[in-house]
Amino acid sequence: MKDTSCVLYPTEHFEIKYQSFATVMQNGHVQLSQDKIYYRVPYQYIRKKVKLLYTSGAVEIYYKYNRIATYQRSHKPYAYTTSSEHLASTHRFVSQWSAERLIEWAGNIDPSVQGYILQIIESRNHLEHAYKSCMRILGFEKKVDTERLIGACKRALDFKIYNFKTIQEILENNLDTVAPENQEQQLSQHHNIRGKQYYN
């Protein structure tokens, strides 16, 4: 009978590691595109290309074979995970506001507002800029009123233009109150808003 007393068996199940590559954004985050989730790395790696190794439960981030960050893998789309020692002073703003928080705020107003905020976040490489634009847009709820903000977001979604200036101009020119059949005619009078035909 074969002696197996010295055979060592692994104490943990083997997990396949997957990998992806991404460039660290200006805000110090890198996106795991598989999940649409952002992880922060030390700010000195901004604009550097890094490798992400991930399993079902963990994410490791490497730069030139050196591991620069490790996290428990999140599964909440548009959330971000951070570590305080990675923050530069210019990035404190992002540590206080996340995409998840802004999307939830917008969703409490109306689905159209949430959809518009989501489009802004997805279309920006610099999250600080996206967050500031989103906060300024959501701030219109107090400056005008909820219904006007909803109307402005609906118009802007139709036009497929995603920025603070568009919402501001729609509200200033009362385009949120224009009947849908007159939108294009009214829109063409304001050269700063190109209209949805520009994107076709």
Task: Note the topology.
Elements: E1 18-23, E2 29-32, E3 37-40, E4 49-54, E5 58-63, E6 66-72, E7 80-81, H1 92-96, H2 99-109, H3 111-123, H4 127-138, H5 140-143, H6 146-159, H7 164-172, H8 183-187
Parallel strand pairs: 3-7
Antiparallel strand pairs: 1-4, 2-3, 4-5, 5-6
**What's the shape?**
elongated
Quickly give the structural class. alpha+beta
Q: SSE order in H/E notation?
A: EEEEEEEHHHHHHHH
Low-confidence stretches: 188-200
Number of strands: 7
Helix content: 25-40%
**Approximately what portion of the residues adopt beta-strand conformation?**
15-25%
Nearest-angstrom radius of gyration? 23 Å
Q: What's the end-to-end separation, in Å?
A: 76 Å
Enumerate how many helices there are, as a single number: 8
Strand order of the largest sheet: 1-4-5-6
Mean pLDDT, as a whole number? Answer: 79
**How is the biggest beta sheet arranged?**
4 strands, antiparallel
Structural commentary:
There is one protein chain. The protein has 200 residues and is of the alpha+beta class. The chain is built from eight helices and seven strands, in the order βββββββαααααααα. The strands form two sheets. The protein has a four-stranded antiparallel beta sheet with strand order 1-4-5-6, with no helix packed on it. A three-stranded mixed beta sheet has the order 2-3-7, with no helix packed on it. The longest helix has 14 residues. The N and C termini lie far apart (76 Å).
Provide keyphrases for this structure:
three-stranded mixed sheet; four-stranded antiparallel sheet; 36% helix; alpha+beta; elongated; disordered C terminus; 200 residues
